[in-house]
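Archive entry. Fields below.
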Amino acid sequence: MRRARFDEVIVRRANLRTPFPPQFSARLAGHTVNAVSRRAKYLLLELSSGDTLVMHLGMSGDFRIEPAESVGEPGKHDHVIFRMSSGKAVVFNDVRRFGFMDLVPPGEAERHPALSVLGPEPLSTDFNAEFLARALKGRKTSLKAALLDQRVVAGLGNIYASEALHIARLSPRRRASSIATASGAPREAARHLVDAIKQVLTEAIERAAPNTANNYRGGRFRVYDREGERCRRRGCPGVIVRKTQAGRSTFYCPVCQK
DNA sequence: ACGAGAACCTGTTTGC
DNA sequence: TGCAAACAGGTTCTCG
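PREDICTED_STRUCTURE:
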């Protein structure tokens, strides 16, 4: 497969969460995509122009790929259409418009305000019990809210924050600082939590991978969206409850998560 | 300085 | 049935 070039970029609505940069379409047209990468929940496309296209799907965004010739009348929430030299059109659809697109000049991607504040990637060795304990030392917010803070760990979202806490048997309502000693050293809970985050994300990636036999692991989640249902931990008689923390739904088992 | 809550949007589900 | 409130997997701003 050859690297594809942007033949034409049609912006049907030039503001998602933030306004698009000036000359967005013109800066893309004629350039090829040299590399695709990811940082936290941001998608990064390195272009032959040297610019980096930074994108985020927000809550409801998605890309769909269709043959260019079959692109008909755009749907209501189709905001951007990338017509590629491959003959495909990549359509960005986003009902809630919490998505995000920006174009940053060469060498400035890491300094982008959205990216520069991010903590370590959860599956990297930089994300470990020592780091987490230091990051949460003295923080009075809840453990759950802290896990959603992208400066602490980048790319963990609401579902897997709840899931990881269940695996680690830690209550989402604990003080974040409780996983560290006063000097910022990790307690055992910090190691369990780091391990649980890595585990839950690794499993989720495996499950999502195409062409594997892992696709139909029944049951989906351990706690997320299971209010009122039995805890899945073996031997635990608990019932999953839902609580709002920092404006988001948290699901946990009050019996086995301490 | 920190943490909680609101705000940004639209669509769907839930409750009276 | 109908309408309003609550809720949705994210991020960022404001306010106390």
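CURATOR_NOTE: Residues 17, 41, 56-60, 96, 98-100, 114, 148, 150, 157-160, 224, 248-249 of chain A lie near DNA strand C (CB under 10 Å from a C1').
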